[in-house]
Amino acid sequence: MIYFVDAQHRNPNKLASPVPSGLVTVADYAQLARDGGISAIASVLTSPVIVATGIVRPDRTNTPAATSFHTRHLDPSEAISRYIKPDGRRVFAIQKRGGGAFSELISVGRTQNVDVHLALDGVSKFHAHFTGSEAGVFQLVDGGSTNGTFVGGKPLIVRTPCTLQSGDEIRFGVHVFRFYSVEGFARVVLAMT
């Protein structure tokens, strides 16, 4: 389920309310924008999002264990098969949800009790977490995951915060996402309509 912050809850670490069902992909938000304008997106989504964009294949050959997660070049047909078309990209709101673990963090992982549930191979049970400020600044922290967390292709140091900018590429293991502020996501959606 996707969650968003109620208009009365500006703190991104507070409990969120569910987004109306059916808003799962970028195409769903594009349809919402076509039907109600770009302001319709802001009325249901008031927190940053991560959008799934594809996966990469790690190259673990001839590298030390501590730095063993590198991407390799893909041939064009393999790259296309690993790319998610823009209209089918899943959207995940970065929000606290009812019953989520770690009340002060917005947790990410493959277990169902985290805030951003990614049921994907290579994602740890508790992979990483986001923190947000009243000013809208979000940070990402790797929680000691097995396959690593990356921002802009660079691995995060475990338990060391990394400040995010709208449009940053994030990887949880081999799964690639794009981080967007609400405004940045609205611009992406607007470009699709």
Describe this structure in words.
This protein has four helices and 15 strands. By secondary structure, the chain is α+β, with helices and mostly antiparallel strands. The protein has a six-stranded antiparallel β-sheet. It has a five-stranded mixed β-sheet with strand order 8-7-9-10-13, with no helix packed on it. Strands 1-2 form a two-stranded antiparallel sheet. It is globular and about 40 Å long.
Summarize this entry quickly.
With 193 residues, the protein is of the alpha+beta class. Helix content is 18%, strand content 26%.
Distinctive features:
193 residues, alpha+beta, six-stranded antiparallel β-sheet, five-stranded mixed β-sheet, 18% helix
The percent range for strand residues is 25-35%
The run of helices and strands is: EEHHEEEHEEEEEEEEEEH
Overall radius of gyration: 16 Å
Our count of helices gives 4
Low-pLDDT sequence parts: 1-18, 61-71, 76-81
State the helical fraction.
Answer: 10-25%
3D shape? globular
Largest sheet: 6 strands, antiparallel
Please tell me the overall pLDDT. Answer: 78
Number of strands: 15
Q: Distance between termini?
A: 25 Å
Order of strands side by side in the largest beta sheet? 6-3-15-14-11-12
Secondary structure category: alpha+beta
